[in-house]
Amino acid sequence: MSLRDFLRNALPASAKQRVNTLRQYMARPDIDQVVLQDYKFHASNDPVPRLNFLLPRVSAATTFGGIMTGFKLFFGLAQRLCGTANWDVRLVVDAGYASEIQEVLRLVDFARYFSGKPPEIVIKHDTPAIDTRSNDVFVCYNWWTVLNIRLLLRQQQAHFQTARRPLIYLIQDYEPLFYPMSSAHMLARAAFDLDWPVWGIFNSSQLFTYFALQGHRVERHFVVEPVLHDKLRPYLSQIDSTRKRKIILIYGRGQEERNCFSLLRSGLEIWSREYPRSSDWSIRSLGSTHVPIRLAGNRTVQSEGRLPLDEYAGALLAASVGVSLMASPHPSYPPLEMAHFGIRTITNTFTCKDIGASHENLISLPALYPTSIAGALVEACQMFENDPGLGIKAKSNLPAYTAPMDESFLEEIAEGLLTLTKRG
Fold first, then answer.
1. What is the reported pTM?
2. DSSP code of residue 296
């Protein structure tokens, strides 16, 4: 019996109550207690329309995947507005440092979109109130920025006596799933059900389908399908000349529940015990920090964290088998990247999401068990051993995935905003 079990059985009820109370005092505050804080309104008489991007804290270390897509869409929309009329551009970041945000702007290649002045940067934490014009339009990145801007939107309308300006919401994932059965879950759902006109930009058709199935509605919706990162695309030309090796690439994120690290670890442990030639294979874990994974034969898998893009491309070119799991309606970037780089990739379905038909290299498991992951790994390794060129020869059914992102819908959004701001 563990010490914890012994104390649970031996302590009197009053002592257990005191322990539980102490634990509650020592626990970190719930996320909604930390991030929810209304933006304060301060009226400005400047008539120039302005596009604002509301962000939580950003840093160069986290500027990839969804945040990179968010910046690309925001600056793509700003470029269209500024190219047609006189618009200003502003970033409002919850907390951080201006130098840090400037580095992020460099990473997202802001100069590619604008030849003129860079966007204004406002740090909400250091600003008593948000300067607000009659023609300010706000683009939100996540659920708490949506909830924090609600009051300011109403104050903007009341003060300037204008039509309600739509809130543009970049919906990158179904965020309530990040906080199951909790206050934060209900608040994240509430962000999808505002009593305000919302124009939603959904990162994948699967995500929009799931959003609608949950009963949410927006005034207008637009869908952008995931595409290969611009800086990874040039490496595709090297696939045919690359010698694939016995390397399993896993998306290991021990701190992100939705990436199912526990299932991934258990599946690898079973595979290492049951596959006779498992010792011939090496395993690389990319994503974020996690505890070592112990395999049969006293082997361990250490986390390599997030690699620079050129090193990540090298890992994709070398590996022949991959595992990337995601308990979310979003397709996720890594399994699509792996498959298109000639890697036989194990992933999973989720409600209305099944990306198995997207590429011949994708193995989309309908049910995630450690044994099903291990079995799929055995099959993928055997297939490579029988034909090392099989993954490279596999075909994609997503021709648009390796092309630049289709941003044509931004024209429609820009036209709508230009009409509203002219109307007053």
1. 0.88
2. G
